Each structure stands twice: as C-alpha cells, then as structure tokens.
Amino acid sequence: MKPIQLLLAIGLPLLSQTAPIQVKSMPESATAVPQDPYLWLEDVTGEKALAWVKERNLESAQELEGTSAYQALQDGILKILDSEAKIPYISKEGAYFYNLWRNAKHPRGLWRRTSLAEYRKPEPKWEVVLDIDALGTAEKESWVLHGTKFLKPGFTRCLITLSRGGSDAAVVREFDVTTKSFVKEGFQLPQAKSEVSWIDRDNLFVGTDFGPESLTTSGYPRTARRWTRGTPLSMAKQVFEGQVKDVAAGAYHDATPGFERDFAFRSPDYFTRQTFLLDKDGHARKLDLPDDAEPSVCRQWLLVKLRTVWTVGGHTYAAGSLVATDFDAFLAGERVFTVLFEPTTTTSLEAYTWTRHHLILNLLEDVKTRLYVLTPEKGVWKRAALKGAPAIGTASAWGVDPDHSDDYFLQVNGFLTPDTLYYGTLGKDPEKLKASPSFFDTKRLEVSQHFAKSKDGTRIPYFQVSRKGLKLNGSHPTLLNGYGGFEVSMLSSYAGIRGLGWLDRGGVFILANIRGGGEYGPEWHGAALKANRHKAYEDFAAVAVDLITRKVTSSQHLGCLGGSNGGLLVGNMLTQYPQLFGSIVCQVPLLDMKRYTHLLAGASWEGEYGDPDKPEQWTYIKTFSPYQNVKAGVKYPPTLFMTTTRDDRVHPGHARKMMAKMKDLGCDVRYFENVEGGHGAGADNHQSAHFWSLAYTFLWQTLN
Fold first, then answer.
1. Is residue 659 left, alpha or beta, with left meaning phi > 0 and alpha meaning psi from -120 to 50?
2. Which site in 101, 258, 515, 591 is 20 to 30 Å from 91, CA atoms measured?
3. What pTM did the predictor assign?
C-alpha cells in the first residue's frame, strides 16, 4: 500500500452512539449553480433524511428480497463468509502469529494468536486475546476492530483501534496482550481520524482532533505531537505541522533495531508527500526528493519510487522507476542512485517488500504478476526470480519479520483459483501452509484476456471469465467491473461471492483495466487525471462496445458495477452511455462533483479530480458529475444505488441525492443504505451477505 493510502486507510468499511457527521457549507464563491433541492439529504443522521432512507430500503426489500432465490443466495453467501475452511491469514508480532477471525458465532471477530508450529496443523489451537463481540456487548457499543500497533521490541503492549459500526473515525486504546486487558490509565484517544506511532513505552507520536485548526480541510490530522504517559493529551508537545489545505500531516517512529529514526511528513495532496527527518532537538530536515515521489527508508537504504521523470546527480530516471541509495550518503549530499526497476510499455512496479537481507519486487506484465528477489551485495543488486512463485495467476509476497529473518509469505490466487498461502525462506522452495476451498464450480469456466481500442486509439486490456466454448450470440448476462482511479490496479482474484452470485448462474464476468489505474504505472494513472478524466470513461465504454461487437453480450444483457471511485465510473456510464447497459449497480459512490470537496474526506481527492470551486476547473469537472448531468426525458437503464450511513469517507449524500433526483424524474431506480459498514459492504458477515445478495439479485433480474 502506498504511504498516503496507508494513512487514509485508518480510515477504510450505533447511530445514537456517535456524534453526527459534520458537513461543510457551500462557500459564497461556489453558488454558480441553482440551490440544490435535495441538500437536506446530506444531513446524515437527521430524522427526516433517515425516514427517507427507511422508506427507500423498504421499497427495495419488497422488490428484491421476496423470492426463495434471494434467500438461497443470501444463505449461500453467508455460508462462504462464515466458512471455517477459509484461510486464517496471520501476521507475526514478536513470538506469536495473530489473526482476526469472524464466523457465525463471532460476527465481529475473535482476535487470537498461535505459534507457527501450531498454525502448520490442519486445525491449529488458538489463544483468544480479545473477543470483539463480547467487548461490544459489555460496553454497549457496535465495535469493529480496525487495527493494532505493537510496541517493539517487547510486543507485550499494543494500541488497538476500535470503530463504531465500521466508520473511519475510531477510538484508540492501549492493550496488554499478556494480561489480555486494556491498560488501566493507559494511552486512550477519543473518536477521531487519528494516527498514532509508538516512540517508546512511555511516549507516542499522535495526530488527532486537538480542536480548532488541528485538522485539515479533508478531516485528517494536520499536526503531530509527542504525548508522554501520565500527562493530559492536551499537554502533548507539537513537533510538526502541515497546512490546513493539506490532505494530512504527521510523524512516526522507525523502530528498526540499530536504525531507529523519527520522521514527519505532510501531503499537500493525495499524490504528493514531503518527508522530513526529525532530529533529537525536534528540528525537521526535509529530504531533497520530488514531492510526487514515494520514498521509504529501511535500515541503511533509501528507496524512491518515481511518479514522474527525475533528473539528479547528472542522471535522468524514468517515471515509474524504483531507485535506491545509501541513506546516510544521501543525507551527506551524495545523489548517486541504483535503478532497481525501470518500466517498459507493458510492465510496471505494483509493490515491493523487504525481508532482513533482500527486497522482493511485485511486477505487472500486461496485468499479470511476476515476482523477483533483489539482493544488495558490495554495491551491486543481484536479481533473480522468486523461487517457487507460480507462472500464472496473481501472486503477492511480503516479509514475515523484516527486522530479523528472510522468511516470507506468498499468496497465490486467480479468477478460478482459490487462495493458497505459502511460507518460505528466500533461496528455498516455499511450503504450502493453507488453501481455501473452492466455493463455486470452476470446471466449466475459463479465463481469457482481450484488448479493446479506446476513442483515442489506446489499447485497453480486460479479462473475461465465462463458460468454456461460449457461443458468441449476444445473449449472455454479462457484468462489467472497473475502477480507473488513484493508481489502483485491478487484478485477477478469486471471489467466492461473485462465483456463487454470478458465474454459477451462467453469467459472464469482465474486469476492465482502464486508465486512471496503476496497471501500467504512473503514466497510465496520469493519463486520466482531472481534465483528462473522460479518458477513463471512454476506456470503459470501449470495453462495453467490444463485448457487444464480439457478441459476448448485447446492451440489454450488459450490466456494470462499481464502488467508490468505481461508483463515479458507473455513474458516468449511467449519464453518458445509457444506451450501452441493461442495468447498473452504483455502490458507495461519488456523484455530486460540485459538492464533493465539501463532504467529509472529499477535499483530499482534489489531486485526482480537481477543485470544483475554481471556475476553470469546474468547466471540465461538470462534464463527469453525474448528479448535475442526469436529465428529464432520457431513458436510463434500471439502477440500484447502495451506500452506508456509517461511510464517513465518501458521504452517503451522494447516493441519496442521486436516487431522490432520479426517482422524482420517474427513472427506474431503487436504493439500499446499510446503517453500518463504513466505506465497505458491512460491519459483519451477515451485513455483507445482505448487501451482495441485493446487488446480484437485482443484476440477474434485470439482465437475464
């Protein structure tokens, strides 16, 4: 995960138990459009708005839930989510391997641990550390565990992040894993979008809501403070601050043995980041790097992933490259870098991860993964393919304990291949630890990759999952999915819910790798930014046209589904290309691009879309703002809008207002809003099963 994405994901998906979500008012300079008659639906927990939500939910329930097929699908999806045969993924913290396990008896989960020797067994014995359901019952709260941060090197204390109902805003509490209890009078933070980092046992770096001007306009911490045990949070000493218009700012401690350092950062927008080294006196030294680069420091190494071309030290490094140098030499003024990866027209760097002595690169070659191991020896980085990595499918590897070992986990899956988890030591063949069962019939299915030509001639890859020997007669119910934003790559992956809800019924599934994503590196992403946003939508429409031209399907049998930025994508299919689709599912979407920067975390995405309060930028933003572009007299395909009350990242007002406007225009629309779940499908498995059962029932009814 990219550094700024990691920060924002603290913040990834009972009303009466939480303060209302605050919404910024429209500035006077932005009143160039008529008053919005549906603005009242932005009052997230308002009585009138929630009554409207309840009515819409009831209408959808009456239409979609009243069949035996719906109930069978929901039961089947819940069975998948609650399956005891799923892989219990683990992370190493000290001597133990930890896991959060959700099932029918424990919908919010058991946070538990075991040893590697025990984990290797078919049925490991687990030691429960914290029962999230029991905690919620005892405290009368709808707790969802959002994460833990351990204090090194002892690994006996951790900071636990707990969210009410799945919202990004959460509380933080200090926990002792030896006594399995919260630390009396330990570190505690009230509900906010906080960022915390251990410095030592008695000190933290904290970014949280300290009151006026302590948050950015995006709602994330603007200041970082050093908080000492036993002192009030209000007395924490400020060590760094960003600007109000930044996305976020903060500080963190690198506890790598022998290389302990303190860093601070500020992110002027989602795609830029300035990194600072903090000295013992609290002075912040800015690292001399491009703001749009992604730096990381591990032990003696500084690695820099470039988003644009960089000329330094008499050398020019290509956009999308990963370069490395000695960190101390860099601080001393040396600017000699070694190129660890340079992209081609078909390859990009998806991710990288350290073990104790090696670096693992996860590359994409025409959207198919390849894994390589780099080893620094005497100034030279040796490169070899990761031993035992599969030649097909999607694979990702990560270090088990980079401070101490060269062990790694390897996860392998694909559209038709359930997850398999391996454990290995670099240089040796990995051992198979766990394998997930198949949750749908794959024997009759096949995967193929195709390429469509977009409006400007660009080659757009997409994957097709369908029955073997599919007759190209235009009759097959087909679901097109995509994202196209924030440099996020859409890869082949196994999804039992999709298999049961769509493929098992004979549906065709399509995954489009459109511009705006990261499939071909930062240039692929940059090609659809801001004024060029239309290219992502042209790409997606080109895939739809290609499917119809190839006679995989026809417009009346072709549906599309997308969430978040993908919700904006399918919202534009609705308003710009309604003739191509038989139905649309639009989930947790952005839709009102005139208001988006004034709703919750919206201001943090100006780097992706632009600022609608600037007239010259609104000129192009309004062309891809579905809420402004939906019109009377147009025949739109049947549409299902889905969101959550607890989504404090993408405001539920987007989906609410679009639904209300289209309903009043007499369009064929329906709506579902889950009361929990954050920016996701649900706070527990039952909620997720309900969410996806509604979506697939609607799609099958409208496209079959």
1. alpha
2. 258
3. 0.93
Provide the CB-side half-sphere exposure for 437 (13 A, CA): 10
Q: What's the CA gap between 8 and 4, in Å, rounded?
A: 6
- 679, 688, 690, 693: the catalytic one is 679
Q: Is 564 a catalytic residue?
A: yes
How many residues does this entry show for the chain?
Answer: 704
SS3 content of the chain, % helix, strand, coil (to 5): 25, 35, 40
257: nearest Cα among 151, 404, 375: 404
Does the pLDDT of residue 393 top 80, yes or no? no
Residue 24: pLDDT over 50: no
> Mean pLDDT across the stretch 266-281?
95
Domain ranges of the chain: 48-78+439-703
pLDDT tens per residue, range 304-340: 999 999 999 999 999 999 999 999 999 999 999 999 9
Q: Please report which helix (H) or strand (E) contains residue 369, including its range.
A: strand 368-377
Among candidates 415, 409, 406, 367, which has minimal Cα distance to 388? 409
Return the SS3 of 101: strand
Q: How confident is the model at residue 32 (pLDDT cuts 50, 70, 90)?
A: very low
pLDDT the model gives residue 280: 87
Q: If you average pLDDT over residues 162-179, what whole number do you get?
A: 97
CA distances from 462 to 6, 385, 476, 551, 689 (A): 27, 26, 17, 16, 27
Catalytic residue among 60, 267, 454, 564: 564
Neighbours of 667 (CB within 10 A): 19
Give how far the C-alpha of residue 378 lies from the chain's centroid of Cα atoms, to the nearest Å. Answer: 38
Cβ–Cβ < 8 Å for 526, 515: no
Measure CA 498 to chain center: 19
Residue 171 — left, alpha, or beta (φ > 0 → left; ψ -120 to 50 → alpha)? beta
What is the model's pLDDT at position 9? 33
